[in-house]
Every structure is written in structure tokens, then in C-alpha cells.
Amino acid sequence: QEKILQVHELKKYFNMGKGSVLQAVDGVSFHVNKGETFGLVGESGCGKSTIGRTIMGLYDKTDGDVLFDGKNVHELNEKERFHFYRSMQMIFQDPYASLNPRSTVKEVISEPMEVHGLYKNKREQLDRVYQLLEEVGLNRDHANRYPHEFSGGQRQRIGIARALALNPNFIIADEPISALDVSVQAQVVNLLKELQVEKGLTFLFIAHDLSMVKQISDRIGVMYLGNMVELTASEELYENPLHPYTQALLSAIPIPDPDIEETRERIILQGELPSPINPPSGCVFRTRCPMAMEVCSMKKPVWQEVGQNHYVACHLYDDTLENKDLTKQLTR
Ligand code: SF4
Ligand code: MG
């Protein structure tokens, strides 16, 4: 399998002034295989959007490396960067905010083509716009209308058409369905899946809960407060979640069967999400972890492979930890 994207020990800190630093992404590593969908999941503020933007080169990195097609995205020259944007595009959560309200759908979709000078001939460009509209389930009659005339789901389709305008092979979808009605979410997910098969696209799919990501992703990485805490294949994550945070996230997904739903144990996390400006020492999850031990406040758990292609950062799975005192369960 070809690793189209490799993220090594990526750190992205933001200087907040007066000496405080927001550790948005604090040493995250993963890769994305060509043609797969990699789901990046975690609550808002965990750093997942920052990772997306740093991969796109919209943010400088603080440390670590991002390689796309073997090339370091933060070391591209102007020409390489221009070319890079044809390969990698982004879809955003709120399609309305990302579409210029004063531009017609035609203008919104043709803009990237014009910037990149794809077509010399206006007619060809317009035909391409029509083709893209059809590919996302809209039609040419929509071309001269304005984004606000469309429903949320349709606007997301326009956003997708725009992202496809340059024929990218990698798409970062940052919560593309979070703002949509549940009934519309499945339609957009299905569209993305169809486009993936037709065009051989690779997706980095960012989401704040696991419910939809399960269906669309081949592998999933779970993030908490700037750290990746678990990563494995989709089915494995659902059948055998190891990290206490993943277990809590999974327990929060409603199950359609009322009998199971009633008897199921829900893991309620205590306390608030700490600030990434002053994250907890040791394991960042320890202030809310039902399994927290003495060691958790002293040592940051290492990122390790505990099963085949199953990675986790948690002292519960650290065999080298022999000090019984340190593994004493904290009472809360
Ligand atoms: Fe919980 Fe400790 Fe594991 Fe962190 S390292 S998830 S606090 S048990
Ligand atoms: Mg976000």
C-alpha cells in the first residue's frame, strides 16, 4: 500500500501572547494510504482541524514533518506549492461560510480553474462546471443561481464540486456533514463514497463523533487535547476499543435497537475538557479518565503498537510498567 500522506511527530503551537502557548497539536503521527478514507475524530478543540490546515500548508508547523507524495509540504517552493493545491483540496463544515454569497454557483466552481488557468476557452470551462454539477447530483440550471438559494445539503454539494474542480486526488473533509440534518448527512456521505470510487480519491475525514465516521472510514485515529490516543482499522476500533476515551466516545453513540440501548452501559466522562494552553501533566486524558492511575499524572504514555496495526497511548497497555504503586487506581 502506498502511503500518500505521512505525518511525523507533528506539532502546531500557537503563541497566545503574554508567554502563553496553545498546544493545538502536540506530536501526532499517522499516515494515510492511497485510496482509503482515514477518519480523524475528537471533540471540538482537540486539534483535528489544525492538523488538516497544517497538512494543507495553511499553517506553518511548529515541529515534525508532513510528507505528501514523498514531498515535505512545508518545504515546497512557489511552483511546487501551486501544483500541490491541484492535488489536495479541502471541504469545510459550513458550506455557506466557505462560498462567496455574491458569486453565482458557476463563479464559485470556476474560480479555482481560473486561478490555475486550466481552460483557455470559456466554453470548455463552462462545460466543465456543468459536468461537475452533475457529478455532485445538481444540474446545469443551478449554475447561475446564488449559494443562499440552496439548502444546506445542496450547498455542501456545491462545495464538493468546487473542491473537485482541479481534479485533486486527496481531499481533506473538515466536518463536512456536521452542520447538516441527519437525513441529509447520509446523502452527502454516499456522494463522497461514490466520488471516491469513480475518481480514486483519498480522504482525510474529520469529525467530532464516531457515528458516521464508522461507515465511511477504513482506519480511524482518535484525538484528545492535541494528542492522538488510538489508531486502528474501523472495525477493530468498534469491536475492540482500548483507550478509555475511545470507549467513552463509542458508548455515546445511540444504538437503534431499544432493547440493547436500554441495557447498555454509557461511560460518562467527568469534568470539563482542559485547556490546551495548560494541558494536564502526564496523560492529557487523566483528569477525565475513569481508569486513571498514579503514574498517569507523572508520565506521558508512549504511542505504541499493541495489536496488529492497533496503536494506543495509555499506561494500561504498557507492559514495561512494573511499579505496582504507580499503577494503583486513583479513587475519585
Ligand atoms: Fe487513563 Fe492513565 Fe490511560 Fe491516560 S494513561 S487514558 S489517564 S489509564
Ligand atoms: Mg474544527
UniProtKB/TrEMBL annotation:
Keyword Transport: yes
SMART domains: AAA
An annotated Gene Ontology molecular function: ATP binding
InterPro entries per the UniProt record, alphabetical: AAA+_ATPase, ABC_transp_ATP-bind, ABC_transporter-like_ATP-bd, ABC_transporter-like_CS, Oligopep_ABC_C, P-loop_NTPase
Secretion signal span: none
Residues in ABC transporter domain copies: 5-250
Keywords tagged on the record: ATP-binding, Nucleotide-binding, Transport
GO biological process: peptide transport; transmembrane transport
Listed Pfam families: ABC_tran (PF00005), oligo_HPY (PF08352)
Family membership: Belongs to the ABC transporter superfamily.
Matches recorded under PANTHER family: D,D-DIPEPTIDE TRANSPORT ATP-BINDING PROTEIN DDPF-RELATED, TRANSPORT ATP-BINDING PROTEIN
Name this polypeptide is given: Oligopeptide transport ATP-binding protein YkfD
Organism: Virgibacillus oceani
Recorded name of the encoding gene: ykfD
